[in-house]
TrEMBL record:
It comes from Allorhodopirellula heiligendammensis. Residues 100-491 form the AMP-dependent synthetase/ligase domain. CoA binds at R206, R207, G208, K209, T324, N348, S536, R596. The keyword Nucleotidyltransferase does not apply. This is Acetyl-coenzyme A synthetase.
Amino acid sequence: MTSHSADTSQSGSIDHVLHERRLFPPSAEFTKNARISSVQQYEDMVAAARDTRDDFWRKEALEHLHWFEPFGDVCQWEAPHAKWFVGGKTNACYNCVDAHVAAGRGDKLAIIWEGEPGDQRKLTYRDLQIEVAKCAEAFAQLGVGQGDVVSIYMPMTPELAIAMLACARIGAIHSVIFAGFSAESIADRNNDASAKLMITSDGLYRRGKVLPLKETVDEALAKSTSVEKCLVLRRTGGEVPMTEGRDVWWHDVVDTQPGELAAVPLDSETPLFILYTSGSTGKPKGILHTTAGYNLWARRTFEWVFDYRDDDIYWCTADCGWITGHSYIVYGPMTAGATCMMYEGAPNHPAEDRFWDLVERHKVTVLYTAPTAVRAFIKWGDEHVDKHDLSSLRLLGSVGEGINPEAWMWYHSKIGGGRCPIVDTWWQTETGGIMMSPLPGITPTKPGSCTKPLPGVIPNIVDELGNEVDSEHGGKLCISEPWPGMLRGIWGDPERFVEQYFSDVPGQYLTGDNARCDRDGYYWIMGRIDDVINVSGHRLSTIEVESALVSHPHVCEAAVVGRPDDLKGQAIAAFITTTGRDTDDEFLKELKMHVRKQIGALAQPDDIRVTAALPKTRSGKIMRRLLRDVAAGRELVGDTSTLEDLASISQLQESE
Ligand code: WTA
């Protein structure tokens, strides 16, 4: 692989991707059995969702969600505020769990789980119903009720999904924090959301080692002002200190409940969860999703895009700490009644064939993973794949960043055996579910393109001023009409919500991505407009990392940019000025650890360069474009005449 191919946000690779001409139509066999099996069917849905939006979604909602009480208006839209299925009462946990038991499908497997050490558990929908009810009963005992925020910092065990669903069952709001974040990050999120309960485990397994989650949580809780109780799952069996009056064991307070509590009928717009994500400022935003619209969007996009069938064994390899895990491990597939694989650990433990071993043993039919994982598999070598029979697979998915054509081809031929369509799904934490993707029965795919919008998604490409542009040329990607799964706000910050997402083009949602639409109506995502970088499919704001660096007493100024990386898509490159302290390797190591401690391992800079001064424009802005070139080892191009300190540039280049 060439170094630029992994990074679609760099101009070199945009050309590369956009000149992709190969077309892969679905096989007649796949099309014949597909849920959406003709272009006409898709076009009719698109037209209905566009021209008769309310009728379209009324029918969808009545058919695909359970209603305790009917809704009135389908959509009330006063940009940027949307209400869907107004006045209706439903419950996302009921839709995910109880509905299947009520319909006589209680014996169907909901979760096939495998822990990293190889332990296994299988839960039917009926099992899940009992476990979720027990957890909800424990919440009541711990003083948690409707509207309270519950922070979840857990390994990928069934209890993580159970805890999320238990919140939904009673109208508590979950805020899942990926179990790689630092104590600082947990405390920030707890405080921002005024979380009342924290759920964690003694530890988690990662590459054969135990990571001490409870220790990190204890440190976080010392700084979390609102958290009253901490519920602890025993996973690894290690000794952990329990704080009297605050900490309780899962097996003491959850497992001992009767498991009878019914799902509470909740208003359609009841907050379902908050999920923190990076934006263009240093402070992560708590993206708010509500009950009915999100639930419907997750379900229908899951069924359309993954061509869901009752006998599928579906595996999304994401962690529930990210939106992909929320929508495509829990709410989408479970509302559809799917059997979901869930895996706790690393893809290369005990060996690099762990995923393929899982696919073979559990006969996985649909696999949804990220380009960064695909690139790692390529690097590890085909021999790990060749050992296994992957013939159960019928469909492959990709999410998190653009999948470069080389990785696409490998995924297609090596994993998919040339027979599985690939759905390259474009979406965001804010959109709640997939927005653009091939429909596997009908859409001829082009490697590197997320192809076309799903029904109900109306993309619009605009220029700097918000005017519509020639979409072949490309520009900022907006969505011009509301859709059921859209975010409803930023927790505690209504102004930022409007300013960030709806101020560029009045009334339209600004995605933050650049995109281009080709002559066939296929969309190509060209990377972020803002200061967000995408490291292994995870969103980070450069400013967040800069703030962490500057909080070190010996760092004066910091500038962080993404640089192309074969494996991660983008790596983090930092440029700093210091107080003059000796800047040896020890110091750089200490700084990396400092960022790790402030945000988490995923934000640790890959390289840090110390410089006498950062290149700035005359108005004092750091010239990031230039630093990106330096970080990528590219020749400096363009106009550098406004540089205040040219000397610093030559020094940066020398230090490479
Ligand atoms: C990027 C993840 C190209 C994009 C679901 C978006 C993609 C950000 C794709 C959202 C894709 C995600 N092709 N780019 N198929 N999928 N992205 O909120 O820049 O973690 O804005 O949601 O990831 O990241 P988030």
